[in-house]
Design brief:
Layout: H1 6-9, E1 18-20, E2 26-28, E3 31-33, E4 36-38, H2 46-129, H3 133-215, H4 219-230, E5 238-242, E6 245-246, H5 255-262, E7 267-268, E8 275-277
Parallel strand pairs: 5-8
Antiparallel strand pairs: 1-4, 2-3, 5-6, 7-8
C-alpha cells in the first residue's frame, strides 16, 4: 500500500465492490477525482443498469406529460378558432344591421314625404275656397314650407340610397371573404380534431409503455421520483451531475452527494432534491 498513489489511497474507505480503474486523474474546480466504475456482485454496472431503467421510465413519463398537455390544449385551441369564426360572422351581422337601419331611415323619410304631399294637396284644396288675400297668402306660405321639407326629405332619401349602395357593396365583398375565412377555420378545427385523436392514440401507447417501464424501476428510486413529482418539481426529476453541479437547478452539490452518485447510491441534490447520477 505504501507504493500506491496518494489519490488512490483516498478511495480505500469506499465500498469494497469499487474497482479502481487506472484512468488519468482529472482536475475539476480544484477537486481531484479518480474515474472509476462501481460493480455489483454480478459484475454488472450498478449505476448504468439501475439508472438506465429509471431514465427509461422518465422518458416515457415525460412523453406522457407532453402528450397530455397537448391533448388538454386542443379544446382551448378549437374554442379560440370558434371565437374567430363568431367574430367574423358578427361583423357580417353588424353590417347587415347597419343596412337595415338605413332602410328604416329611408322608409321613414319616404313616409314623411307622403305625409307632406298629402298636406300640400289639402292646403291647395283649402286655398281655393278662401276669399281673403291674407288667408290665400297664408296657405301659400304653408305650401312653400311643406314643399321645402319634401325637397329636404328627397335629398335625405337620395343620400340614404347612396349609403345603402356603398354599404351593400362592402357587405358583399366582406361576406365572400368571411365565407372563405370561415371555411378555412372550420378546416383547421377538423385538423385539430384529427390531431386530438392521433394524440390520444399516442398517449394510450405511451401510458401503457410507462406502466411496463415502471415495473423495472428500483422501488427506492420510484418513491423518490414520485415524491418529487408531487412536490411540483419541473421535469426532469433524474438529472446528471456535471462539473459537480446539479443538472436540474445547476447548483453545486456537496462532495458527499457526488460520492454517493458516483458509487451508485441513491443521491439527491442538496438544493432541489432531484435524483442525481454521474454519466459514464
Amino acid at each position: 500500500m505504501t507504493g500506491m498513489p496518494f489519490e488512490s489511497r483516498l478511495l480505500l474507505p469506499l465500498r469494497s465492490q469499487v474497482r479502481i480503474i487506472p484512468f488519468p486523474i482529472e482536475e475539476h474546480s480544484h477537486h481531484l477525482f479518480v474515474a472509476f466504475r462501481c460493480k455489483n456482485p454480478d459484475n454488472i454496472p450498478v449505476i448504468s443498469d439501475t439508472l438506465k431503467k429509471a431514465l427509461h421510465y422518465q422518458d416515457w413519463d415525460t412523453q406522457v406529460i407532453h402528450l397530455s398537455q397537448q391533448l388538454d390544449s386542443v379544446p382551448g385551441e378549437i374554442a379560440r378558432i370558434r371565437e374567430s369564426i363568431a367574430a367574423e360572422e358578427a361583423e357580417i351581422k353588424r353590417q347587415q344591421q347597419e343596412i337595415a337601419a338605413c332602410e328604416l331611415r329611408r322608409s321613414q323619410a319616404e313616409l314623411e314625404i307622403e305625409t307632406l304631399e298629402t298636406q300640400i294637396t289639402r292646403f291647395k284644396t283649402q286655398q281655393i275656397t278662401v276669399k281673403k288675400t291674407e288667408e290665400y297668402e297664408a296657405f301659400n306660405e304653408q305650401i312653400r314650407n311643406a314643399e321645402a321639407k319634401v325637397s329636404e326629405c328627397e335629398d335625405t332619401v337620395l343620400g340614404i340610397l347612396d349609403e345603402i349602395d356603398s354599404k351593400s357593396g362592402k357587405l358583399d365583398a366582406d361576406r365572400k371573404t368571411c365565407s372563405e375565412r370561415v371555411a378555412y377555420l372550420n378546416g383547421v378545427i377538423g385538423d385539430w380534431e384529427k390531431k386530438a385523436l392521433s394524440i390520444a392514440s399516442e398517449l394510450k401507447t405511451a401510458s401503457a409503455a410507462l406502466e411496463t417501464a415502471k415495473i423495472d424501476v428500483d422501488p427506492a428510486l420510484m418513491t423518490s421520483y414520485t415524491r418529487l413529482k408531487s412536490q411540483g418539481k419541473r421535469p426532469p426529476c433524474i438529472v446528471p451531475v456535471r462539473d459537480q453541479c446539479c443538472g436540474g437547478c445547476h447548483m453545486r452539490v456537496s462532495n458527499d452527494t457526488l460520492k454517493k452518485a458516483r458509487i451508485g447510491e441513491l443521491a439527491t441534490c442538496d438544493q432541489c432534491s432531484r435524483i442525481l447520477y454521474v454519466e459514464d
